[in-house]
Amino acid sequence: MIRDDTDDTNDPDDSSTAFDTQTVLPDGGTAAGEDDVALDPWGSATVSDYRKLFEEFGIEEFDGVLPEVPNPHYLMRRGVIFGNRGYRRVAEAMQNDEPFAALSGFMPTGEPHIGHKLVFDELIWHQQQGGDTYGLIADLEAHSARGLSWEEIDEHSRDYLLSLLALGFDAEEGTLYRQSENRELQDLSFELGSKANFSEFQSIYGFDGETNVSHVQSVVTQMADILYPQLDEPKPTVIPVGPDQDPHVRLARDLAVRMRFFGVTEAYASFELNEDEQKLVAELYRTLDSADFDDDSLRCVHVAQAIDGMTPDELDVDAETVSSAKAKLDEAGMEPLRPRVRFLDRNATNEAFDALIDAIDGEKRVFDEHIDVFDYSREEAEELAREVEMENDGYGFIMPSSIYHRFMTGLTGGKMSSSVPASHISLMDDPQDGYDKVKSATTGGRETADLQREKGGKADECPVYELYAYLLSGDDDEFATEVYEECVGGERLCGGCKEQAAELMKEFLEEHQEKREEAEELLDELDIQLESSRR
């Protein structure tokens, strides 16, 4: 469920050092009591070392893009939002007051709790920054993957929507829908399904012969959810999620590309090079001089000769790349090596391909399945390709972006689970029950008060400190920093710290539930079907 092209690295902002801990840590340190990395959208939401997500799955550190985000949310500033895919595009849209969107979905399998509040807050913040914002009820997934009845789904859906509205989602400015009642979404899902196959679902999700077909269909529907904000116009779109949902994001980014009429790449000759070959040829084009070959143009055969006289170590590529690049260059012979931008025909109709040819100004070379141009930058070519695609009934999708937040540790230690009431606080809990759960929570304190005063508490292993950093401090970084420093400095003892957190939690729940009651009338007036037509 969606619940809940960058290459950026930067030093963490100095103001975040108070949160440089295992649970709230920009460099992705270990969270106590959690299991190894397992990105399963329907499994246990745990990650033992967030750094592995950067190394193994290509998620980028959020610190690299944070300086470019206008008015960043406190979850961003404190490192709770730790990673991203392609978020710079969204940040640039905010900076330039250009259209962008945010979408997240909620699988209604139980009561919304404080872990879900992270996603609610991220969605609402993007709305406040001017984004077109979408909140969806993933009822098809709840029914197919979790086996909930439509009556149960309806009940839980109402609870999620009430909390979303109570926390500040503007339903007049945003869009709310449920998967099962959105025909436009289902039509898009059908189109996306033609670009996916079961073997990759096996690889990504571990589906096998026992997986029911409705579950497979629900995944394609989620891909349509992610791209749904771009149906009217292509725009940067962010999906705020926990890292367990990254497989959905990666597949959606792939499908967005597969749906495009044209690909746009850079090239140096009429033939295709893979990424490693392209880097090699680009470097040689930059360093070789045609005069050294007694010619006024640098030709493919010249570059092949240069490669022949160098070792893979000198070229800084593997032997296979050297061999394959040289073979292509040799075959091209005397063709001049000349940088160009290439339009690749992916899914274009004949009419769209002809329209692109007509739309290109200046020198161009037309082949059966691609067009080479010499007077366009890559950015200009991408803009033209999308424009022609849109004019010829294509979607013109931009690859969706994502941001990833850390999982909240359960109040009893380990993971927070909806099925273990003591481990989480429901947004619908009686305020006194919320108070009592915090008072009973596991802490990162020392064995005795004297030892805590001497050595300081272990805030980086404390679920109660997480409550301050993720929720109870709100936008007040100074207060969250104070709690952290007093704890690790030995000034703050667990009893008083839990009492303060419990009182703040009680106040939060009282206020939230008052706002939920106020949202009841608004919800009934919204253009969203609260009772499933499938009941």
From TrEMBL:
Pfam families: tRNA-synt_1b
Residues in coiled coil: 498-532
Molecular function per GO: ATP binding; tryptophan-tRNA ligase activity
Top-rank taxon, per record: Archaea
Keywords, comma-separated and alphabetical: Aminoacyl-tRNA synthetase, ATP-binding, Coiled coil, Cytoplasm, Ligase, Nucleotide-binding, Protein biosynthesis
Ranges annotated as spanning the membrane: none
EC class of the enzyme, as a word: ligase
HAMAP family attached to this UniProt entry: Trp_tRNA_synth_A
Ranges of compositional bias, category Acidic residues: 1-14
Name recorded for this polypeptide: Tryptophan--tRNA ligase
Enzyme Commission identifier(s): 6.1.1.2
Family (UniProt): Belongs to the class-I aminoacyl-tRNA synthetase family.
